[in-house]
Amino acid sequence: RSTLVGNFNGFSSGNTYTLANGQVWEQVEPAVLEGVRRTDPAVTIRPGLINVCYLRIDGYNPAAKVRRIK
């Protein structure tokens, strides 16, 4: 659990997400979460199967498949 740094305007493949703890994650597949405009939202990153992780914005169901790049 952490928070995203700055503005979040929805998911898009190729987006990078910087967390307050310094980690940087890149979205690797399309995901839909439209109409969300949040500043410094709380997030949860959970592991999936076979070295896959999912980033979810707290309070919303859709999750984006991500990989850690930093």
Structure description:
By secondary structure, the chain is mainly beta. It is 0% helix and 43% strand. It is built from no helices and eight strands. The chain has strands at 2-3, 7-8, 16-18, 24-27, 38-39, 42-47, 53-57, 63-68. The strands form two sheets. Strands 1-6-7-8-4-3 form a six-stranded antiparallel beta sheet, with no helix packed on it. Strands 2-5 form a two-stranded antiparallel ribbon.
Helix residue percentage: under 10%
Shape: globular
Structural class: mainly beta
Report strand %: 35-45%
User: How far apart lie the N and C ends?
Assistant: 16 Å
Compressed to H and E, one letter per element, the order equals EEEEEEEE
**Poorly predicted runs:** none
Rg of Cα set: 11 Å
Number of helices: 0
Number of strands: 8
**Strand count, sense and closure of the main sheet?**
6 strands, antiparallel
Major sheet: arrangement of strands: 1-6-7-8-4-3
Mean pLDDT equals 93
Topology overview:
Blueprint: E1 2-3, E2 7-8, E3 16-18, E4 24-27, E5 38-39, E6 42-47, E7 53-57, E8 63-68
Antiparallel strand pairs: 1-6, 2-5, 3-4, 4-8, 6-7, 7-8
